[in-house]
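Async update (no meeting this week)

Hi team, since we skipped the sync, here's where things stand on the single-chain job. The sequence we agreed to prioritize is pasted below, unchanged from the tracker. I ran it this morning and attached the output directly underneath so nobody has to dig for it. Comments welcome in thread, and please keep replies under the output.
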Amino acid sequence: MKWLTGLAAGLLLWAGTALAAEKWNMPTAYGDANYHTQNARLFAKAVGVCTGGKLEIVVHGGGSLIKGGEIKRAVQSGKAPIGERLLSAHQNENPVFGFDSVPLLATSFEASERLWRAAKGRLTKILDAQNLVLLYSVPWPPQGMYFKRAIGGVADMRGIKFRAYNAATARFAALAGMPSVHIELVELDRALASGRVEAFITSSATGYYHKLWKLMSHFYDLRAWLPRNYVFAGKRALEALDAHAQNCLRSSALLAEAAGTTRARELTGFYLEQLAANGMSVQAPGKRLAADLARIGEIMSAEWAKAAGAEGAAIIKAFRGK
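Output:
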């Protein structure tokens, strides 16, 4: 009978452990092959190891659980405890969310990191007021333009149907005389096939993942900005965890930010090489195009600074070390 008593005690202990475990579903907007999604899965694994399995984070990529444009609202409302989203997608609700998409402000990974450090504290406060907790952020490679033909200047862009993914890209299209439509990345292939879009600004990563050399002929490596994704949790969901689990989330987030940023750096050159290897013209903008884009950049930078006000000025001042 002793063995039976011991077995019963063991089963009760196992059941207690199982009941104590918690599962968090984490929606993301990008497919499983994307390094942001892969990094999120490593983050989830690290949290599971750190908590001894008491907190399981299940990553749902490609908008399969919740569409990209709905992720932030879902976390705020408690529909999901955690999520990942493109930071500048929320610029319309607060200009500070668009700090990473100011044209030609931060055009390298080093500059992007300085800009992130300058903006992080202010962004954290904004999210806190929205009952959200910032966990980590990872940049995309520098942004460039995809076209189906050679572009010598802004005059050559007029009338081309342009895919926008945030307020900055929509404004860029307007200034360049291109009608724009907001298209999430998971919808890009269908939009190109149907003719809804003919050009766009995005990273070399997008070109590689979506094999854009099949439909596009030219990539202009503008290095206009490095947009960022960010991972955030609902404040109530996080505070419901015990102290150890909360510490695991935060420490795993630090690792994920470092690992994801390193991966972005490593992949950037590879993506560009693959675009060229598959027949796409990969080049820096010519003199006239560069001058036209610089003028657009000056307009957009001034507009963002005005909209962001004192908060934006403080970010720029901290970024420039003044």
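Quick observations from my side:
Confidence is low (pLDDT under 50) at residues 1-19.
Residues 243-277 form the longest helix (35 residues).
Reply here if anything looks off.
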